[in-house]
Amino acid sequence: MKSTDQSAAANVKLSDFLCFAVYSANLAFGKAYKPILEELGLTYTQYITIIALWEEDNQTVSSLGEKLFLESNTLTPILKKLEAAGYVERQRDPNDERQVLVGLTKNGRRLREKGLSMNLLEATGLAPDEFAKVQKAIVTLRNNLVKAVQNGE
């Protein structure tokens, strides 16, 4: 390594890392959502689980986990808490007993009115077109990283 490369590496700051920018933005989103989610009695992960079920009700735990990028050992406790709260119900798939189906209850569907009122567009300070571009860029980034991991890069 050249001495200029070494000095450049020594001057790298935490704020220079894209991964930290994404991580800290995620934490900021969590803080912005917190008051609204507390009102609903949900954590952020429970909330996105509910959203995925609004999108497609009665899906398998494995399908839901793929959409949320969560392993079943992380998703199962979330589903148990949502079930205890009366928002979801789990049952064995009658066509394949190995699969567990997750569906919203009436109370889970009612959360939609309250939950969809959350709009952080203004809080981001981005114009609607900028918001869409950033969201698309982050999805592309995530998908590329998932592919790279799958390909062993």
UniProtKB/TrEMBL annotation:
GO terms for cellular component: cytoplasm. It holds the Pfam family Staph_reg_Sar_Rot. The keyword Transcription regulation applies. Its main location: cytoplasm. One of its GO terms (molecular function) is DNA-binding transcription factor activity. PANTHER family: ORGANIC HYDROPEROXIDE RESISTANCE TRANSCRIPTIONAL REGULATOR, TRANSCRIPTIONAL REGULATOR, MARR FAMILY. This is MarR family transcriptional regulator. It comes from Paraburkholderia aromaticivorans.
